[in-house]
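Hi everyone,

Forwarding the result from last night's run.
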Amino acid sequence: MKKLSLAIALLSIVFINAQTKWSFDTSHSTVRFAVDHMVISEVEGQFTSYEGTVETTKADFSDAKINFKININSIDTDDIKRDNHLKNEDFFNVEKFPNMTFQSTSIEVIKGGNYILKGDLTIQGVTKEIALKMSYGGTVKDPWGNTKAGIKVTGKINRTDFNLKYNSVMETGGLMIGEEVSITCKVELMKI
């Protein structure tokens, strides 16, 4: 009887701590950014090619392990000339560094489905730990029986920390391009 009880206890622990794996549903997700332009406005853009996975043992994603890779060549700011400039050596240098990556290192629970997500962001071979806000929107079954979940990640980084230093000074003394980049990722996940 003791062996049966021990076996049931072990199975319960394995079941409770079983990892759930999720993939990014890119047709229902966006990866956007914004940066100040000439001090008076912002330029917005997005990356259209990316992939990621999430692993979690908790239903509220408070222990999520996130891996994310963006194809920088997919940058889109609604201006081909600007996009090509962003791809060259002045900025991302996509020939040498075609991807940027993010790997989470920890999640701090704030309250009510809101978290601080920390992780290592790598751009141009430079890796820095960053902290972002993350919110969990819930989990549902779609009409086709797939389990879906939603998370939103927002935050700011300083682009010069990642060797994205190109700039010019305007006659007024201000910088043409802001150094702070706002990030907004709205991600729909699909249970694998």
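The mean pLDDT is 89.

Cheers,
N.
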